Amino acid sequence: MITPIIYANESALKLFGAREEDAKINEDIVKEILEDIKQNGDTALKKYCKKFDGFCEDNLKVSEEEYKEAFAAVPKSYFKMLKRAIKNISAFHKKQLKKGFEIRKKNSVVGQKVTPVSCAGVYVPGGTAAYPSTVLMNVIPAKIAGVKNVVMVTPVKADGKVKPEVLVAARLCGADSVFKIGGAQAIAALAYGTETVPKADKITGPGNAYVAAAKKLVYGVCGIDMIAGPSEILVIADEGANPNCVAADMLSQAEHDKLASAVLITNSLSLANSVAKCLNTRCNNLLRSDIAKESIINNGKIIVVDSIDKAIELSNAYAPEHLELCVSNPFDYLEKVKNAGSIFMGYTTPEAVGDYYAGANHTLPTSGTARFSSPLGVEDFLKITQYIYYNPAALYAASADIVQFARSEGLTAHAESVSVRIKNE
């Protein structure tokens, strides 16, 4: 099933190929939806809900009755499991909180203060699968940041029902409202606001190609977390790794999407051959086997290298969303990893531990953007404001330097804004 085993004697680009951020779509369609909702609010929003989801009611907001039904539908064991996951995720993200600071001198103060955005919009996918874990990973950091109004949107099918697990997660995490809308129309509603959907300062959360395109187009009207491409995993494994476990980990990403990619780099030819066999066996037993199989055939790779150091060199060039260090001594290599969204250490830490439970966020940079960007976190919902105070003595002491600097740039009005105060004094 998988492509032949590759020996790493070529450049990283030739080994991995160029990655596309998203499936090709007609952005003109997205632009039309955005503009329509911008101009016509709820009327346009409901039209697209009916057109794309087959569902539309006068009130798209989830009611208290629907929350009650959701809590009644999930078993107590699920409820308790969610609470444990929320505890871990909250503990991790509380460590990310930033504080302001001041630099005080005799006659001046320079500082910065940290303020949460007023309203955050969270998109939770609901197409081929529904993701309560996405609720946790987006709403929890927003609430820890101090966001007063977290508005969640998620698509529904023609029955108009949000998956109970998603609603329970939303309530436990503190989402302030949930709307039954999805796709580009949901992003438009959050970006511009409608009669019923509040305008968000920041939109986060993954979605399909239309959601990604909409987020890209509204950036500047509001903030966004990232443009998320297809999911990806890169596993670095040595001869001590269990081939069945490595294959399972690769398939854990392949089942997401036909465009997802799963890559193994190993210094063991024996392991490479065993993993290739295990992939074939395990894939046939998956609930989403058709999706996983196409992902592995089109985007899966097994690469053999001379050493783990070489594997990390290639990984840094690839900058994967998820990186598993399935080696006997993972902490020896941790500092050598420069580009990765999240790193999973050792033989017994599959990516799923981070997806659901450990506490680290699972909304991660894709398509090589881990070279310059970071996982979603509390800081995504915070903004920095600087402040400066100079009393007359401080301004006088610095005036000559400021005036000289301003005049060197040819900005005489800047210089005059200082010198006129000195003359007055």
Strand order of the largest sheet: 1-11-10-9-12-13
Tell me, rounded to a whole number, the average pLDDT.
92
Structural class: alpha/beta
Radius of gyration: 25 Å
Number of strands: 14
Strand content: 15-25%
How does the major sheet shape up?
6 strands, parallel
As residue ranges, the low-confidence spans are none
Question: Could you give the order of the helices and strands?
Answer: EHHHHEEEHEHEHEHEEHEHHEHEEHEHH
Head-to-tail CA distance between termini: 81 Å
Approximate shape: globular
Structural features:
5-stranded parallel beta sheet, alpha/beta, 15 helices, globular, 425 residues, 14 strands
Description of the molecule:
This protein is α/β, with parallel strands linked by helices and 425 residues long. It is 45% helix and 16% strand. The protein has helices spanning 12-16, 27-53, 64-73, 76-94, 132-145, 164-173, 183-192, 209-218, 243-254, 269-283, 289-299, 308-318, 351-356, 392-408, 412-424, and strands at residues 6-7, 101-104, 108-116, 119-123, 149-153, 177-179, 202-204, 223-224, 232-237, 261-266, 301-304, 322-326, 342-345, 382-390. The strands form 3 sheets. Strands 1-11-10-9-12-13 form a 6-stranded parallel β-sheet, sandwiched between helices. β5, α6 and β6 form a beta-alpha-beta unit. α2 (27-53) packs across α7, α7 runs parallel beside α8 and α14 (392-408) packs antiparallel against α15. The N and C termini lie far apart (81 Å). 44% of the residues are buried. The model has no long low-confidence stretch (mean pLDDT 92).
